[in-house]
Structure formats: structure tokens, C-alpha cells
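tool=predict chain=A
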Amino acid sequence: MYCGYSKACGTKGKVDGDKVEEEGEKGSMFEIFEETRIGNMVLKNRIVRSATWENRATEDGFVTDELIDFTSELAQGEAGLIITGISYVTEEGKNIFRQTGIHRDECIPGLKRLTDEVHRQGGRVAAQLVHGGGRSLVLQPAKPLLAPSDMVGEFFGTAPSRAMTLDEIESVKEAFHGAALRTKEAGFDAVELHAAHGYLLSQFLSPLCNRREDEYGGNLARRARFVTELIGEIKEAVGTDFPVLMKVNGDDFVDGGLKASDAAEMTTLFEQAGLDAVEISGGLFGPDRIPKELTRRSARKPEEGVFFLPQAQEFRGRINIPIILVGGIRALEMIEGLLSEEKVDYVAMSRPFIREPQLVKRWKSGDRSPSTCQTCGRCSLKAFRGHKLQCYRRKKTNLMV
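tool=predict ok
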């Protein structure tokens, strides 16, 4: 049962067992900080920490104490759901250094320590699963980058990639199944499939990257088939009571790429396959390479700075599962407006939590001032240069180690 703003529930209110109690006026603070459900997962509020590569795992993908501490601080900050940074499902699917792995059973104990700590703080946590595909920056010896179709290296600024065989498609699906089962065994509350930003699943959805002529390419339904099958098979593996979320591009923002209407139509297929919620983002080359006008608009007029809201509206009328919107959200007034007008069901943030891990707790306490994140991008720039993910505008004494 989902209790929120979408057609799946049809009313607003808080969770009380299987009952929904009508509360408050539209746009009230109660609606942000009420309990809701995604599937069987109960969340304490409607604010999600969107998955962010932390650059805090070991080189071979194992959880470290510093990654647990980093995640624990987010849990203390009372975000309704924490989605951990991209976890690779196969060695060849690893796409960046010090990325968390969930590709083998030996990863489970460390991940279990992480989820135990989040639960000790009263939080909920989901693991985001990814295969880098043609966007991988990590080359494995004698293992070419895999993609739906042959792509030159210049496309993503990486090595060339080649089209996957049908056997390789099945093998990657099995890797996702195994990773999802490890996610559940490690104590996560849900799993999120990363089908945005040009990674493998995103490449299958995009007509620019997927030029196959078999059952996994061509029209909209065939381009969506890999992901549709993957969702159904994962739900069958982990059980219907374990929520499966997905991050998807509302727009690739490149000529010939995936557009909002097709992305929304694909998501109706994902919903039929068992998807429990969708997080809408954008940009085939990642959120740091979306059109600059989006970030300029945010700087000029914060209330207009929700990057992917027009794309999310394409989804609203077509699907019944909860919509999570990420991108440019920095102020409580933004969130109140989105929820009170029933445009989305949850909001997600990334960089504001890098600067202020306890932002939600601050807002809940009554301090309504916006996030102090200036969207400068130094956090990601420094991380790509090998530094730990953190805000580099914070005072030195407050930096997380």
C-alpha cells in the first residue's frame, strides 16, 4: 500500500497500520514530515537523499569505516530515505575508483554493518545498483566495455565499447539479480536500479545509444525490454514485499536522445513489471552536463530552479507509483510547493546533503532557511580528482574526514 499524493492512494495522510488519517491543510509542514510508504517500506518524511558516489570504499569495492561514518551522519540528519552511492554489480560494470561493490558475497558483511548503523539511527536505506556500460572509466584487462550498440570512445570520453550479445545480456541480468539478493541479505530496505545518466540501463533506453535491430532495440517497447525484464525478474527473486525503485532520465538533453514522453511511456511498462517508485533525473552524460540554462535559472530565481519538473509532469498523468524528483531543490518553500500542488510525491537532494548532512533535522526543528549549498560543483570536481566526497566550502574544522 502506498499512502501519499499519487493516484495509487488517492488521498493525503499519515500511515497508521493500513489506515490513512486525513490531516492538515495543503502545503502544511505536516505533509512533508508525515509517515508514508513505498511498498512495505515506511518512511518518516518525504525527503530522500539521492544516491551520490562517495569515493569512500576500498579500491576493490569493500565498505570502509569512513563510509559507514559518512552514512551514519546522514541518518542522524533524518532524511526519510538514504540511497547509497552507485554499487557495481560486476567487475566490468565498475565505472569509477573507490566505488562500492555488491558483485560478490564477500561484500555483504561490510554492507550489513552500514545498514545496521543506519537502522540504529532510525533511518531507512536503499542500495543503488549500476552497471557502467560504455560510461565506465575503469578498464578491466581483456574485458571490453559493454553497451547496447558499438560506440566510439569519444561518445562518453572513455574507451570504445561494443554491442552486447544476447548471452551477455542474460549474464548482466543475472548479475543484477545476484546483487539485488545481496542487497536484501545485507539488510537494505529497498533497491534502486540506476537507469539514468548514460550508464548501461540508460543506454538501452536511449535511441541515441541503442541502435540494435533485435528484440532489445528499435521501438520504445523493445528498447525498454531489458529493463522491463530485469525489474520483473528481480521482483521475483527478492519477493513482492521488497521495494524496487529506479532512477531514470526524464530527458537525455542531447539531440536524438530519450525525451520525456517516451521516458514516461516506458515507465508504464516498468510499473506493470513491478516497479514500486521512480526517481526522475536527467542528462545522458550525467547531471553535471545538463544544459547550463537549468543551473543559471536556479541561481537567478530559486523557486524556478527545480531542474526536471517539466519532465516529471509527463510522468504524473501516466503512472500510479510514487514519483521522486531530484535536481535543483534547495529550499523548504520549493518542497512545500511541489507537494501541495501534488506535482510529485517525494523530493530528492544530493549536494545539499554533502554540505549539510543534517539539513532535514534543521528544517524540522523550525529553521526554514534554505540549504547553504551554492551548487558550485567543487564537491564532485574534487572527488573526480581523487579526494573524498565532501563540501569544500565548509570551514576546515567542520570537514568530514
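The first helix runs from residue 29 to 32. Confidence is low (pLDDT under 50) at residues 1-30, 296-300, 396-401.
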